[in-house]
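Tokens in:
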């Protein structure tokens, strides 16, 4: 059924809210109470063409999960053009204001970085500083804070509860120190390694981050293009803005483009092995949804499946709740604002996760994925579960507390790695062990490798680099990390990662705090 602009524009209230996406009209009134981003955002789009705003956050797939009967009909493109454009989550004027000052204290995430330490990193009049001023990966956050909308920055930087898990992640790396050896020939230091048997130029990869369209218009495709130029692996989020097929094609297209160039850019590209994509899976409460995701990831050529096991429910992300409450109050939606404080307007509806997920579910997931490509668990936080992963025939585990965004007072990945070394040493050498959370220096990657990790996942620095500078920022973020890594190898006295052994680090401070059964008996 074709609908007119006059009819659609009437429905812009909490009692009747219609929006237009790609020339299709949806009645989202029944969904207002369930929308992950909050009621206020949808009401602001009521009676409008919300296509542009929708695409900055969501993959088209999410429209399939609207309540039955939401789709009302189509609109002629000419009529759509006559509608008001969707209201952005932050206006240009507000963005310019945010560029000159940090978010208000009441909305700042726990553990958020302080305002830019250097005036060289400030965004002035909408202009980002020259990328040459970004010398450490933490510099990208200073720039991104002045570029991203308040909503986007809060979503990226937020942490669970008061932020202790994120704080622990960041602090853990400094609690392990190096034990350098001298008078070693380190002229040819190589950080090359393999991730799941696939060549990787460095022992780090990009960890999954959802909704990258909030950070950059090119979203995950722009990130993939930057990674292709340096050969870095990418663990793609289940909650990506773009469909997984578009991300895979963006990577392949950039690899083809680099292969056809005859200039210095191509010469740089051939120094690195090809980037590989891996898929992070959330197990949906509807098994059919999960099966469809697995089959699509297989067909798109993803090299491995990483099952997320630390989200039986969404954690309490305090800054998100505060922001959604403020937005609802600004829109005059007092009841919605009160409910936001209890997470009832979270960024993911409850049915996006399966709270009954158990070890037994690995059987049907493995049947769908097949045996020829690896399966790993993402979110392991204790030694016993690493041992169980080995017994269940998994290829590896990612030790992670979800970037400090899930459980309150969750263990940092390095502490979990040390716990495995102390209590389940048989896991080492049989499982590939990956870690993520809080790494902000390439040299620190070596600490994890010395303690038995295969590689380290890095998330927020790449999101901020993407938001500030696009693919060029992604490349520079890799270059900063890799230069710090190689320099760190030389100063440690090693020329290959095979020499990165436990005796090259002092982890006694963390070891003193890991779990021991004899200390836990009451």
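Residues out:
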């Amino acid at each position: 059924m074709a609908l007119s602009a006059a009819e659609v524009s009437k429905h812009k209230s909490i009692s009747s809210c219609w929006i237009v996406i790609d020339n299709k009209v949806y009645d989202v009134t029944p969904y207002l109470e369930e929308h992950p981003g909050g009621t206020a955002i949808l009401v602001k789009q009521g009676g409008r063409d919300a296509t542009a705003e929708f695409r900055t956050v969501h993959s088209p797939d999410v429209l399939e999960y609207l309540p039955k009967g939401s789709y009302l009909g189509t609109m002629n493109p000419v009529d759509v053009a006559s509608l008001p454009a969707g209201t952005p989550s932050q206006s240009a004027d507000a963005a310019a204001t945010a560029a000159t000052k940090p978010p208000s204290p009441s909305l700042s995430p726990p553990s958020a970085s302080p305002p830019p330490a250097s005036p060289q990193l400030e965004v002035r009049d909408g202009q980002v500083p020259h990328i040459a001023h970004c010398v450490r990966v933490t510099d990208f956050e200073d720039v991104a804070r002045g570029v991203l909308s308040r909503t986007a920055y809060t979503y990226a930087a937020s942490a669970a509860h008061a932020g202790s898990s994120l704080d622990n992640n960041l602090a853990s790396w400094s609690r392990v120190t190096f034990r350098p050896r001298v008078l070693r020939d380190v002229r040819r230091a190589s950080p090359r390694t393999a991730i799941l048997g696939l060549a990787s130029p460095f022992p780090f990869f990009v960890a999954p981050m959802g909704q990258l369209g909030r950070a950059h218009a090119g979203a995950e495709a722009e990130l993939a293009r930057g990674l292709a130029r340096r050969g870095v692996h990418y663990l793609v989020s289940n909650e990506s803005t773009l469909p997984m097929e578009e991300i895979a094609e963006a990577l392949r297209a950039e690899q083809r483009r680099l292969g056809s160039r005859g200039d210095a850019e191509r010469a740089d590209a051939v120094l690195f092995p090809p980037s590989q994509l891996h898929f992070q899976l959330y197990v949906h409460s509807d098994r059919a949804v999960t099966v469809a995701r697995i089959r699509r990831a297989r067909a798109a050529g993803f090299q491995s499946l990483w099952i997320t096991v630390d989200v039986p429910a969404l954690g309490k992300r305090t800054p998100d709740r505060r922001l959604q409450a403020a937005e609802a109050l600004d829109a005059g939606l007092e009841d919605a604002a009160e409910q936001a404080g209890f997470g009832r307007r979270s960024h993911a509806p409850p049915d996006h996760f399966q709270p009954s997920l158990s070890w037994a579910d690995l059987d049907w997931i493995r049947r769908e994925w097949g045996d020829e490509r690896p399966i790993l668990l993402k979110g392991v936080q204790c030694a016993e579960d690493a041992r169980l992963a080995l017994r269940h025939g998994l290829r590896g585990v990612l030790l992670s507390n979800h970037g400090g965004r899930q459980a309150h007072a969750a263990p940092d990945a390095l502490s979990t790695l040390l716990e495995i070394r102390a209590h389940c040493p048989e896991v080492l050498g049989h499982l590939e062990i990956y870690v993520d959370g809080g790494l902000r220096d390439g040299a620190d990657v070596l600490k994890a490798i010395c303690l038995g990790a295969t590689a380290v996942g890095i998330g927020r620095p790449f999101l901020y680099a993407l938001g500030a500078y696009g693919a060029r920022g992604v490349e520079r973020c890799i270059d900063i990390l890799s230069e710090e890594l190689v320099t760190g190898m030389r100063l440690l006295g090693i020329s290959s990662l095979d020499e990165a052994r436990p005796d090259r680090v002092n982890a006694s401070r963390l070891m003193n705090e890991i779990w021991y059964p004899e200390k836990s008996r009451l």
